[in-house]
Amino acid sequence: MKNLEGEHIALRAIEPEDLEFLFTIENDASFWEVSHTQTPFSKFLLKQYIENCHLDIYEAKQLRLLVYEKNSNKNIGLVDLFDFNPQHRRAGVGIVIHKSFQNKGYASQALKILIEYSFLTLHLHQLYANITDDNSSSLSLFKKHGFTAIGIKKDWILAQGKFKDEILFQLIHEK
């Protein structure tokens, strides 16, 4: 699918053979703060998820795509559209890149592809993201792609015994 490809990466549906990668990402506790996870996922549960992730975004209200490096065909991350609302034509955006592939521009390419897909294929009007105020990499990434900070949720996230503010970012598709 050409509309889900960038220069070095592409996005695709999750396949059963992606179980180990999904298990690694979902059970990396350093990502739990942004995913609001508190407990590890079993392979059994993730296998069930994979079996059901073929559901259409209009039915499931979410879409998770695997990010892979085109040259090596290595899995490098995941992107999500969540809280999909077809009535108001909006969705939340999430992105995670495996630590060994960070700081190589892959997150930027993946976000660009996801934005284009959301606006041109799904015909969404807006995307939003929630980012803690200390996540400088994500703040920079989303600002680079035109997202605007529209509000601050004070003391929204409790992490390692301290409360953090979460910034709400929004990108409206200007036709």
Protein model, in words:
- This protein is of the alpha+beta class and 175 residues long.
- It is built from six helices and seven strands, in the order E-H-H-H-H-E-E-E-H-E-H-E-E.
- The protein has helices at 19-26, 32-35, 43-52, 57-60, 106-121, 136-144; strands spanning 9-13, 63-69, 75-85, 90-97, 126-132, 148-159, 162-172.
- The protein has a seven-stranded mixed β-sheet with strand order 1-2-3-4-5-7-6.
- Strand 4, helix 5 (106-121) and strand 5 (126-132) form a beta-alpha-beta unit.
- Helix 1 packs across helix 3 (43-52).
- It starts with 8 loop residues before the first strand and ends with a strand.
Our Rg estimate from Cα atoms comes to 16 Å
Low-confidence stretches: none
Largest sheet: 7 strands, mixed
Query: What is the percentage of strand-forming residues?
Result: 25-35%
Mean pLDDT comes to: 91
Strand order of the largest sheet: 1-2-3-4-5-7-6
Which structural class is indicated by helix and strand composition?
alpha+beta
In short:
The chain is α+β, with helices and mostly antiparallel strands and 175 residues long. It is built from six helices and seven strands; from the N terminus they run E-H-H-H-H-E-E-E-H-E-H-E-E.
